[in-house]
Specification:
71% of the residues lie in helices and 0% in strands. By secondary structure, it is an all-alpha fold. The longest helix is centred in the middle third of the chain and has 20 residues, at 83-102. It is globular and about 50 Å long.
Length: 219
């Protein structure tokens, strides 16, 4: 019963609609009525700029970290002998927070795609894998300025790291890694289509790099 209450709490934490509250409080708009219509960090980057996009991304990641770490409220999960059960509970808590982010009760069940919250969840469960995925995300973002493509490849990298590089043995964790990759791809279908069409928007960062390249090409 205690686990069920924690999962509900994790969902409520994940439901905090960071980008919606930021856009309404500071800009008197609903971020979901602009750009891609998505209540996530990517659309916040496009509409409100890098500062607020970064803020939303960090808070959304913290939602995943905090929700996944709620197991500490149940002392019997803290012992080394309960490592397997603890991992399973953490996965359940993390998924509940991601579900809350995608379908937030505080924002008419219209949220984001859950990638930042997934990263937060991964940081809480397996920090080393999460750091590797963040590295993939930042590298792709630097090369392309597409947050959507960066998220997709980081999600796929998460599966590859879990299944092959770190070779995690826990079946539920392996299944979870596969589901993460599939979910990231499915929730970014429109973005994938726009990338192929050449209409996907780039985030307003690293413009100095692109400007420098253009100047060099003209010279």
């Amino acid at each position: 019963m205690n686990e069920v209450l924690l999962i509900i709490l994790a969902y409520l934490i994940g439901s905090i609609p960071t980008s919606v509250w930021v856009s309404r409080h500071f800009f008197d708009i609903d971020i979901r009525e602009y750009g891609s219509g998505n209540a996530g960090a990517t659309n916040t980057y496009r509409i409100l700029g890098a500062k607020w996009g970064t803020f939303v991304m960090v808070v959304d990641m913290l939602k995943g970290i905090v929700a996944t770490s709620l197991y500490i409220l149940l002392p019997h999960y803290l012992g080394a002998s309960h490592e397997l059960h603890r991992t399973n509970l953490m996965i359940g808590l993390g998924l509940a927070s991601v579900l809350g982010h995608i379908f937030p009760v505080w924002a008419d069940f219209k949220g984001g795609k859950g990638v930042a919250t997934l990263f937060g969840m991964a940081i809480a469960i397996q920090p080393l894998v999460a750091i590797c995925c963040i590295g993939v995300f930042l590298l792709v973002l630097y090369l392309t300025r597409f947050v959507s493509l960066s998220s997709i490849l980081a999600g796929i990298a998460f599966m590859v790291f879990i299944l092959f590089i770190f070779n995690e043995k826990e079946p539920l964790y392996r299944i979870f890694a596969i589901l993460v990759a599939l979910m990231v791809i499915l929730t970014h279908q429109k973005n994938i289509s726009r990338i192929f069409k050449g209409t996907e928007g780039k985030v307003p960062i690293l413009k100095f790099r692109d400007t420098h390249r253009k100047r060099n090409s003209k010279d």
